[in-house]
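tl;dr need the bound structure. longer version: we got a ligand (LARABZUK) that a collaborator sent over and nobodys looked at where it sits. i said id run it. heres the input, straight from their email, havent touched it
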Amino acid sequence: MAIEAGADAIGIVHAAGSPRTVDLPTARALVDHVAGRATTVLVVKGIAPEPAAEAAREAGVDVLQVHGYDRERTGRALELFPRIWRATSPGGDFDPWGEELLLIDSPRAGSGERWDLRALLQRRPSGPWMLAGGLDPDNVARAVLDARPAGVDVSSGVESAPGVKDLERIRRFAAAARSST
Ligand SMILES: O=C(O)c1ccccc1NCC(=O)[C@H](O)[C@H](O)COP(=O)(O)O
């Protein structure tokens, strides 16, 4: 659905407590379904690097996206899995720690909460980074113009209910994001 609508990467959430969490056999089935048409990303929170990397291998994803990792855990994840996207929040550390991409997200990932992009006026990441947090089809174009990220990530802003993606909203989001690049 998301690929058809224009997504370049597909995030598969494997995090206890999330309305979007899936088990590893389901994650594997999603990766097989994508079949190389987009970058597949296993999104983890609350698990240590070893089981996270093991889960990423089992799911067969291209990228492991880690939430809540400090520098030490990020370094360990990098030893265990080749492609790491590190999620941080506006008050977090933007210095590159070896990750392929930094995701600047609201402190409560997947909550749909926005954060104040003016925080980027004080400091910006020096490496490639992606914007997330409360984006939706109506605000993403403005956010891209203001923040100038390398990419955007969305979850609840393209859902009709928590965990239920909406094709029309994904289409509108992708078109709006592309219109401002
Ligand atoms: O989406 C979740 O439920 C989630 C749970 C635990 C860790 C990360 C999670 N999502 C990570 C993402 O990359 C979301 O797309 C990102 O936080 C943006 O979410 P939203 O503000 O809802 O668009």
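gonna send this back to them w/ a short note. The beta strands are 9-14, 39-45, 63-67, 84-88, 101-104, 129-132, 151-153, 159-161, 164-165.
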